[in-house]
Amino acid sequence: MIHDNHRLxxxxxxxxxxxxxxxxLRSLQDDxxxxxxxxxxxxxxxxxxFRQAARSVAVLYDALHDPAQQSVLTCPTDTGNGGFxxxxxxxxxxxxxxxxxxxAIAAWSRLNYGWMGRTPDYxxxxxxxxxxxxxxxxxxxxxxxxxxxxxxEQALFLSHAIANPPVDRAHPEQASDVYIHVDEEVDGGLxxxxxxxxxxxxxxxxxxxxxxxxxxTGINSKSVMFLVPMNTPGVKVxxxxxxxxxxxxxxxxxxxxLSSRFDENDAILVFDRVxxxxxxxxxxxxxxxxxxxxxxxxxxxxxxxxxxxxxxxxLDFFVGLLTKVLHATSGDAFRGNQVxxxxxxxxxxxxxxxxxxxxxxxxxxxDGAVLPNLHAALAYRAMSPDAYGRVKEIINKIVASALIxxxxxxxxxxxxxxxxxxxxxxxxxxxxxxxxxxxLLKLLWDAVGTEFAxxxxxxxxxxxxxxxxxxxxxxxMAKQDGSLSVMTQMVERCLADYDEKGxxxxxxxxxxxxxx
Length: 516
Prior knowledge:
Layout: H1 21-27, E1 34-36, E2 39-40, H2 51-63, H3 67-73, E3 74-76, E4 84-86, H4 95-110, H5 120-127, H6 141-154, E5 158-161, E6 181-186, E7 189-196, E8 207-210, E9 222-229, E10 235-239, H7 243-250, E11 267-277, E12 281-286, H8 288-291, H9 293-297, H10 299-328, H11 335-360, E13 363-364, E14 370-371, H12 374-399, H13 416-425, H14 434-448, H15 451-462, H16 469-481, H17 483-495, E15 498-499, E16 502-503
Parallel strand pairs: 1-10, 5-8
Antiparallel strand pairs: 1-2, 3-4, 6-7, 7-11, 8-9, 9-12, 10-11, 13-14, 15-16
């Protein structure tokens, strides 16, 4: 069981209801250790580097309690507490439940236009496996069941840190002071030190999930997998620069409408002799469990499902915004631009089709449960990095310099002299006024041209791992599931129809055969 003193101190009193937005924000006011710009952040919910992103997450929690959205977003819990939760926190028994889960994930993603990837439903795609797959965790099976219940009932927000800092990939055995490791076993748990990256949104989550990604580090024969509250003594969150704070300091929401509120700050997660109780451990011992964790635990399909849906919503946003920008600049009158817009729409259709296939053609799993279709999940992993880069390339090509010759700030509109020039020289086409045109293009620039946009491209390109690994995995899985054999056998049947002398298959006639 998870001991009460290791639960969130600010958890809501009513355990049959997930957090509200206000309750979520209160849960972050817990004396966590977050560093930014050389200083410790006292309250992430009020600091200008995090407060808008925190409120963007709070919007998601409030939606769970909105009667107009509950039928899509929520379902009854299966823990016996009589409550409700976001659909992504439950495992699914059939395609119908997966389709309902898909709609819930998409509805949440539309609240941030696809620009927040590590929202609570992301890690829910792992937590929802812990109940039905508890035996996978061996002696920690009861812990898995308890975390399944706890996460579901409160709709917990977890961050995710599984990669080792790349200090020296050629000699990992020389990084024993860097990688996560157990300093000692003590009464009641483990003392853990080391670091993990990239802990996206760790400053705004309630717990962190920590595990190995792949490969044996060579430090020792044991690996560890655990969850830890973000306010645990010794846990340090060292954040990158905040695009939200930069936007708030130098511009207005008009100038940076995405980066000013949807910045999921990435961090280095440091453990300085952190006590992790046995109740928070999911694995400790033979490294093989963590090494094959992605494929054995069910997390691979779940995370790809959530990510593909979110990616598809983001492509919806790009198609809609690019369409409006081309209309405002008369770019839609050119055949070449129409062709390239059509290509973006085709990519949008392709990824929605993959998400639909994951839901409607699931793979059978354990005890009647299903997982999203693995073939579609692997196709998403392999194709989305290049697709995102292609969308950005198309936008740069057909919108071109219109993205850059924009006034420095919405404050220019308040100066009558500047505004008069802008009204004349930066007005749009098809009845689009200068302010509307500038507003559209600043939104697009924040999506493809700012530092925030650059981070998003890096995120999408590396979301599922190394660019080679994600494609090598396709071949490996095709061998394992027999689909590659089916395809090669088809070619072998074709080859068996003929040889160097002519047709072998009697269906076809050789040229020297008499006409009958």
